[in-house]
Amino acid sequence: MPGAPSIPPGPASAAGAAYREQAPPPALAPHVECFWSRTADAAQTDSARSHRVIPDGCMDIVLSFAGPSPGADGRATPVGALAVGAMTRAAVFTDSPGTSYLGVRFRPGVAGALFGVPASEMTDKDVGLAEVWPGTNALRDALAAAPDEASRVRTLSAVVARRLLRAARAPRVVSAAADRIASARGDVSIGALARDLGVTRQYLARSFAEHVGLSPKTLARVVRARSVVQAARRGITVDWTTLALEAGYYDQSHLIAELKELTGLAPTAWAAERS
Prior knowledge:
By secondary structure, this protein is α+β, with helices and mostly antiparallel strands. About 40% of the residues lie in helices and about 20% in strands. It contains ten helices and eight strands.
């Protein structure tokens, strides 16, 4: 049965951890947001092992590898493989020193069909990849044989591409709605969106539960908060009032309440933690 997420599905905010993202091949771009990797510093202190992952509206595959670093030939030993559901709240994770991760982040509405279970059943949870992804053992063997990280990404990319060819697809309205929410950075009326797409709000909500794991309104909230967080990360000083108005919040207090609910911290506390 799915449990609370136990492996980080996103970027670290902790010092001493290297996080990298890689764009997918063009053929996978409509389905995959990115491939990502993370390696915790083998020499990190206890205080540097924790990191906060905020919701992004996506589902991930996360593979973990043992050892302080890959061997001299670049190979690493797979020790875990999870399918991670979409998140509605932030989670704080603690790494073992030197643990490395490789993940693929699917665009909203893609992974539910790939995993063969309603996406809502995995919201804020994870499940062993073997339970929802036939051939997981073969994937782990192939990753163990890969000589370096670039080869592991290529191996995972090829497996995902083959799986996508065989998987059922979410209704077109789901991807269209998710794309509209993303392009509006979450500042969108769900009622108006449903009307524009020629469906009812109820149909859109049912389709999102099945394939995204979040309601359209929750995905919009997550996308809008994420856009604010990304803008805040780019600045040395942060003008929260300006960010609130630009993102379409009523005022700064509305932004503070939303960020606190989704990230677990007030904006100033989040900025302090990031620093």
